[in-house]
Design brief:
TIM Barrel; 26% strand; binds pyridoxal-5'-phosphate; Lyase, Ornithine Decarboxylase, Chain A, domain 1; alpha/beta; nine-stranded mixed beta sheet; 2 domains; 12 helices; 418 residues
Length: 418
């Protein structure tokens, strides 16, 4: 399920040559394959086909409106973590009844917005948040459907920044306190507990942590029902890992085999918040070589993309495969750091990368950049954010244009008496 393949040394996205697209739009840019998005969504859907389920695409992984529309039109809902993401999901046409809202710092105006739109449920992260949602719901004269995000204290075996279900993590409510909090919620007039939520981390490459955490939370469903709560949904969050370089990523079926039997027993509808597995390998970042530079100890390839465009290598020590978009037969492999123009030593896309000799103007593809790529990009160093291009078969669409210098200063003001 990968639509970024080489033909005679030329990288293609579906039916289009990456180099041809680069010529039209300039570099750097994000390039997405519609077919890869769609086939990943389908693969997850089919893997969990034995049980009633809804895939809520995690908007923070890739929040472009066209991407959200494409997934929504294929049945996906959305997992949002801010009012802004809710706005995007609704603009893109995601049905409100398929939207779940997580995040541990929801404000009262965000809560009101979500209640007015009629989302499926809030994933609540603390007892004070519970009180605030109740307050807002009562004021609006509605009942807020909620799940508690329980923290099952499970080590997902991933980078510390993306492990979210451990005791020391800021997320969720400890499993031991969950029953009491559910009872509080059950007795408040503005709240209706309808689900249980967990999200233990991201880029998880083993189904074991899922199995263990689902075991823990599935028991809770029965206990809550005995207390008269109509628990209809069990949300296992996201986190399915994918292949970036040579790690072995389980197929969706493997995750399904581990949890579906446990979930079937509960009779709950399964909710999943899948981001990376759907979007990661559906996108690449295309960049041009600006300079070859020999340092005293290292060789650098300076490219026109930087950490502001793709921060994962700097932030998580993530390793992305980097390769020329047009391969030369005669090129010798050399070990280089691929670095951007930003004034930070942490600005690199790859370190000690084996790359064939490249020349100024050569195109490089940074693979597996479709998730947490553009969405984490910034304007640091006053760099304009890059365009996003979506390929569907032999057609390419600009789904976000390149920013201009004007965009950079939009909204700023110099006080008149300055
Ligand atoms: C980030 C996040 C996800 C998505 O994680 P992936 O690893 O991209 O699947 C799902 N749910 C919540 C609550 C998240 O914060």
């Amino acid at each position: 399920m990968n639509d970024f393949l080489y033909k005679n040394g030329d990288l293609y996205c579906e039916e289009l040559r990456v180099a041809d697209i680069a010529e039209k739009v300039g570099t750097p840019f994000y390039l997405y394959s519609e077919n890869t998005f769609a086939s990943h969504l389908k693969a997850v859907d089919e893997a969990f086909g034995d049980i009633e389920h809804l895939i809520c695409f995690s908007v923070k992984a890739n929040s472009n409106l066209a991407v959200l529309r494409m997934l929504a039109s294929r049945g996906a809902g959305a997992d949002v973590v801010s009012g802004g993401e809710l706005y995007r999901a609704l603009k893109a046409g995601v049905e409100p009844g398929k939207i779940v809202y997580a995040g541990l710092g929801k404000t009262s105006s965000e809560i009101e917005y979500a209640l007015n739109e009629g989302i499926l449920m809030f994933n609540v992260e603390s007892s004070e948040e519970l009180m605030l949602i109740n307050e807002v719901a009562v004021r609006l004269g509605v009942e807020a459907p909620i799940a508690l995000r329980v923290n099952p204290d499970i080590d997902p075996g991933t980078h510390p920044y993306i492990a979210t279900g451990l005791k020391q993590s800021k997320f969720g409510i400890p499993l031991t306190e969950a029953m009491a909090e559910y009872e509080v919620a059950h007795n408040l007039p503005g709240l209706k507990p309808i689900g249980i939520h967990q999200h233990i981390g991201s880029q998880i490459l083993d189904s074991g942590p899922f199995e263990n955490s689902v075991k823990k939370v599935a028991n809770l469903a029965g206990s809550l029902r005995e207390l008269g709560m109509e628990i209809a949904y069990l949300n296992i969050g996201g986190g399915f890992g994918i292949q970036y370089t040579d790690e072995e990523a389980p197929a969706p079926e493997e995750f399904a085999r581990a949890v579906v039997p446990l979930l079937s027993e509960t009779g709950c509808t399964l909710l999943m918040e899948v981001g990376r597995m759907i979007a990661g390998n559906a996108g690449i970042l295309v960049t041009s070589v600006l300079y070859n530079k020999q340092g005293e100890e290292k060789r650098f390839v300076v490219v026109d993309a930087a950490m502001n465009d793709l921060i994962r290598p700097s932030l998580y020590q993530a390793i992305h495969t980097i390769a020329p978009a047009v391969k030369r037969d005669e090129a010798e492999p050399v070990k280089v750091d691929v670095v951007g123009p930003i004034c930070e030593s942490g600005d690199f896309l790859g370190q000690d990368v084996e790359l064939p000799e490249v020349e100024q103007g050569d195109l490089l593809a940074v693979f597996t950049a479709g998730a947490y790529g553009f969405t984490m990009s910034s304007n640091y160093n006053s760099r304009t954010r890059v365009p996003e291009i979506l390929v569907s078969g032999s057609k390419a669409y600009v789904i976000r244009r390149r920013e201009t210098y004007e965009d950079l200063i939009r909204g700023e003001a110099i006080p008149e008496d300055f």
